[in-house]
Amino acid sequence: MKASRLRFGMNLWPPFLFAGIRVEEISPDYRYARVRMRLRPWNRNYFGTHFGGSLFAMTDPFWVLLLFNQLKGEHVVWDRAGEIEFVAPGRGTVHAEFRLTDEHVEQVLERTRGTEKALIWFDTDVVGQDGTVIARVKKQVYARRKRDKQLTHA
Description:
- InterPro entries: DUF4442, HotDog_dom_sf.
- This is Acyl-coenzyme A thioesterase PaaI, contains HGG motif.
- The protein is 29% helix and 36% strand.
- The protein is of the alpha+beta class.
- It has one domain: Thiol Ester Dehydrase, Chain A (Roll), CATH 3.10.129.
- A hairpin with a 4-residue loop joins strand 5 and strand 6 (133-145).
- The radius of gyration is 16 Å and the shape is globular.
- The two termini are 14 Å apart.
């Protein structure tokens, strides 16, 4: 699927749409994504700052999507674990960026030769308009090469 089409669809996806999460960019080569979320009455918490669940949600699918598309559908790729550290109250518009490097892809390819799986941790900061880190998110991604039977049906 073209990255522009995926971006369009994700912006209409109810979990993002109703939380006010906007996918600003997914690069055509699936190496980069940028997401933003404005503070709105429906995504703020009791204290008037960004709801933590929305901060986590805005980072949720991107490492898997970028990696899956880099591996050209030859691997099973899933989220395995995630954690978030809240650093500062989020006010105004917040952003998160995802940059998949050659080293990330090579690490997965090397670990998944044969039938082995790869478990890779990725880090993303959610930052405010002034560059202040609002939250640090870690996601562990599982990848394994598809079996021959899965490749013929993919």
